[in-house]
Design goal:
It is globular, with a radius of gyration of 11 Å. By secondary structure, the protein is of the alpha+beta class. The protein starts with 13 loop residues before the first strand and ends with a helix. It has helices spanning 17-24, 28-37, 53-64, and strands spanning 14-15, 43-45, 48-52.
C-alpha cells in the first residue's frame, strides 16, 4: 500500500488514480476534480489514467501555499 509512501520517496514514474489518492491521503473524487479543474495534470493511456510522481509532488506543494 502507498499510504506510508509519499510520491517523492517512490522510485515509480507514475501512479493510478487510486494510488495517487492513497499517497496523498485524499479520495479519488478529489483527484478527478483536480484534474478537471486543471490543477493536476494526468496522462490518458488507452483507458487508463496515470499521474506522474513529479506532478503529485507539485500538486502537494501548491496545496501548501
Amino acid at each position: 500500500m502507498l499510504n506510508s509512501v509519499s510520491p517523492a520517496d517512490s522510485n515509480r514514474l507514475a501512479f493510478t488514480m487510486r494510488e495517487a489518492a492513497q499517497a496523498l491521503g485524499i479520495c479519488e473524487r478529489s483527484i478527478w476534480q483536480a484534474i478537471r479543474d486543471g490543477r493536476l495534470k494526468a496522462a490518458k493511456l488507452g483507458r487508463s489514467v496515470r499521474i506522474r510522481a513529479e506532478e503529485l509532488d507539485r500538486f502537494l506543494r501548491d496545496a501548501e501555499a
